[in-house]
Specification:
Immunoglobulin-like, elongated, 5-stranded mixed β-sheet, mainly beta, 4 domains
């Protein structure tokens, strides 16, 4: 039996100590001809097998990979440890807009994200139909998912949470926009797209469709005397320049009761008056109050109908 004594065992150091790829991918290990002759033979030791008679090797399994190269009387040895990074698991299904915005979420905060809208969080608020995509990145392993948002059969209302109607208006119309295959039912018993209202109360409409299911929209209807609006400024500048130095509400009707209370941001009362002609000069106990945003509460009862009015809001004080 012929034995060969190798005169030199030489580490190559051409392979990186650690090679990182994405799970499911592969990486090619090979050596340039100027480093190893064409007649050299190779012995690869991988976590899964020993492979011989191949000059280059695609690797994909985690662990240490060692190559021994027999080049004449030289034995060359090199190695690399293959590390795998997981590819992001990402699957967003096509969805439907049902009369309002929706939130699409990846439900995973571990990765870095980029949506086609420029957002980089793990969720996206969508208000319009169209094609969308999201790119998820886990340490260089990137997955892109595309999904479609369509407009479903839902209703669009023209009323908010509260609707104020002038007392002298004989009736008011509440209406919704809906496609023909959407079924409507109002708490008044109507099943049309619009109804007439002539009294205060809560009104709701229930809609049902195949894509969007059943939903209910409601509104609180209140009446007000449009001839007796109260104008309340939102700022004043008590700096003694005779311009906007005082704060007071402006009334267009007579009232039998009036109370104005102003508080700082911590809830401390800095001004109170039951005089409808009273005016705040921006002081508390004779000392100027600092620049800030203050909270007011106004209560008044209109003369003639005994209707109580309550207004809450903010005043900005600038000097």
């Amino acid at each position: 039996m012929l034995s060969v004594a190798f005169a030199q065992v030489k580490p190559l150091n051409l392979l990186a100590d650690t090679t990182v790829i994405c799970a499911g991918d592969s990486f090619l290990l090979k050596f340039p001809e100027e480093q190893v002759s064409k007649s050299a033979t190779y012995n690869w030791q991988t976590p899964k097998a020993i492979i011989v008679h191949t000059k280059q090797l695609y690797i994909r399994y985690k662990g240490l990979h060692i190559v021994k190269i027999y080049d004449g009387k030289k034995l060359l040895i090199d190695s690399t440890y293959l590390k795998l990074n997981e590819k992001p698991r990402l699957k967003i299904h096509d969805t439907v807009l049902c009369g309002g915005p929706i939130i699409v979420s990846t439900k995973n905060k571990l990765y870095k994200y980029l949506w086609n809208t420029g957002e980089t969080s793990e969720q996206l608020k969508i208000e319009k139909p169209g094609m969308y995509w999201i790119k998820a990145n886990n340490k260089g392993c990137v997955v892109i998912d595309t999904f479609k948002v369509t407009s479903g059969n839902a209703i669009t209302t023209n009323f908010g949470k509260e609707l104020l109607i002038c007392e002298n208006e004989p009736s008011h119309i509440l209406s919704v926009k809906a496609s023909n295959d959407v079924k409507l039912y109002w708490n008044t018993g109507a099943n049309t797209s619009s109804i007439n209202i002539n009294k205060e109360g809560i009104y709701w409409v229930k809609s049902s469709s195949r894509n969007c299911g059943t939903r209910t929209d409601s509104v609180i209807v209140k009446y007000k005397n449009c001839d007796c609006d109260i104008y309340i400024p939102n700022s004043f500048t008590p700096n003694d320049d005779d311009r906007n130095d005082l704060f007071w509400p402006v009334f267009q009707c007579d009232y039998t009761y009036f109370l104005l209370t102003i508080m700082d941001r911590w809830g401390n009362i800095v001004y109170t008056s039951n005089n409808i002609n009273g005016k705040w000069d921006g002081k508390f106990k004779g000392n100027p109050c600092p620049d800030d945003v203050y909270v007011y509460r106004l209560e008044a009862i209109q003369k003639g109908n005994d209707k109580k009015i309550i207004r809450n809001g903010h005043i900005s004080l600038f000097r």
